[in-house]
Amino acid sequence: MLEKLFELKERKSSVAREFKGALCTFLTMSYILFANPAILSAAGMPFAATAAATALAAGVCCILMGLFTNFPLALASGMGLNSVVAFQLTEATGSWQTAMGLVFWDGVAVTLLVVSGFREAVLQAIPRDLKLAIGAGIGLFIALIGLVASKLVVVPAGTLSVLLKNPEAALPPVTFGSYHSAPVLVTVVGLLITIVLMIRKVPAAILIGIISSSLLALILKIPTASSALAWPDWSTLFRADISGAMKLSLLPLLLPLILVDFFDTLGTVTAISEQSGIHDTKGKIPRLRRILLLDGLSASIGGLLGASSVTAYIESAAGVAEGARTGLHSVFVGLFFLLAIVAAPLAGFVPACATAPALILVGFLMAAQLKEINFQDYHVGIPAFLTLVTIPLTYSIAHGIGNGIICYVFLHLVTGEPKKIHPFLGFCALLFLAYFIL
What we know:
- The chain has 19 helices and four strands.
- The chain is mostly helical.
- It has one domain (about 1-435).
- The strands form two sheets. A two-stranded antiparallel ribbon has the order 1-4. A two-stranded antiparallel sheet has the order 2-3.
């Protein structure tokens, strides 16, 4: 049954390989079980209830993605999007319930764009060099997340205080961390262990690296997010104020949410497709419309459950790096999240510095796409460069993609090659211009 449903032999995979990849993906993205409630609690949402909703939403959406698309993509509440809910939408709308209502309508709008074929057409309109740059840029982004989580990269102590007094001051935004720090030591040791295992082609190298780092962190008594087991709290479920979010005055808040959600997922799907090799000779992704449709529906599910917008996670690349190639990977990840509803503290025993080596090395694997970008052709090389550097440095996939698309369209217009600009790409450039300006 599993072979027929997930085409395991055709994609040269197995149940064991999909399970191993799923476990690696889950461990790499399990931080969301604690990060999402911590952020949304700033909006007045109860921590325990948001933690349960986060696990439930991720579990349901991952299983749906695996069953209906057969693509190794995991989903959970989106980092960045949850910050918009907590620090912008809640204050602007007056309640977290109305903010979740906006998240629901964001999912509806994105789903309609998929049904109309617009979202898929946009992805196909993006030149291959830009797609490769998106994947490599996201790789640099998640490597940076790992470096920051491990304290290998830190904000200089005096930067924030100086900038508060003088916003125009030119100071380094980040610098190197201390190698006397226990989290840095855990990351470095875990990184070296994982690299050696990868060189020796040991199966589950990344997973073994995470486990090794976690054990070292336990020995060094590095604090974790673990807590006592408790019964799930469902007080945020179906509390979204859907009708209250339909006010015309809230439309300016909804449009940026749609735009960010729209392009973040396009970048993630492209990156996972390139890494896994699940595409045809022209770079087209099978069942792409289903993937995008499930992603749109997941945003609405996240809003309804009180978990913020659920979206595709680039951490899926960790499972793909371990050999996952089918939707069975996503089903397993979903089951892990459902188990985490009552066993979330177990995930808390894996500190950020223990998963950091996995993020750094997955970033390395994804950056390998750089060699295929034609940097000699400035028409695509410069937009590709802007894309891959601004994704990590702005901490925003959508902004990186927007910068690349605007530059691509502009260069072809001023050099007399407008016919090479796909109409959808031109339209997206205008949308991004409006978004950045307004």
